[in-house]
Here is the input.
Amino acid sequence: MKIMIFVLLVASNIQTCFADEYEIIFSEGAYSFDKNKGYSDLDNKYLAKVTIKKNGEIITNDVTIRGSTLSDSIFYYEMWNNETNINPPTDDDIKDIFIKWDKESDISNTDVPPNLINLINDVREIIKYLASVPVIKSGSYEFTMGCHKNGTSVYGHPYAVRIKGGIDEKEPYNGKIDSTNLIDGGIICTINRNSSFKNKCLANGVNIHNGRRQDTYKDSTGCMTIHPDDWEKFYSRLPNPYIWAKEKHKGKLTIDRGPNTKTPIDSICDPAPNTTIPSINNLNVK
Here is the structure.
């Protein structure tokens, strides 16, 4: 009898401690921008379909979860959708946006009065600086469960997904699942410059949390966001941080911005991802 009880306890413990593998997939462009609804429409801000898998099986077939892999920037939201685009920009599009902006910033050979050239250039640099909100590359990332901004933010409650990255600027994570020494909230390569990270193509503390409901932005400075109406449907499918750590679950995030995106694309800062970008005309912008 004692042997039978012991066997049952061991079997129960093994089942409890079994590590599951979760995968979160953001498929950008699964939903199109509806120009009839405007920029502040909730659905227009979240054009990615979010799917969650557990041990290879989809566990979100019974719900619809919308999200976004794009942070808040007029460059790839209002200005992008103001034209003929109904799908979110790909990695290549985001890179091209900033390359073209840099080229178009030179107005020295135009008919603009000389006394206005410096002013216009300064205004353009300020706009570019404020709009330089980082976007991480398409690809695969590892994640764990934790708190967004150590629980001090109004978003990401009761818990959030934390993306792993490199330990320092010399070894940033670039979207390939072949790296070691990854840490929670570590440094990740981005497509464009990050005004909050010394204007380098790097970011850290990248998470997945619920986004803003009002206005045209999502309150994201680099994080993935979930449609606020879908937030509970999203986080409730994932173990809380205590269970995640105790049972040693594993997490993979896949960002898919369409078949035309190279994976991983070069950053605008390449060839060296840790290269410091020159200061923008010595502007003291905070």
About this structure: The chain is about 25% helix and 20% strand. Residues 4-15, 271-286 have pLDDT under 50 and may be disordered.
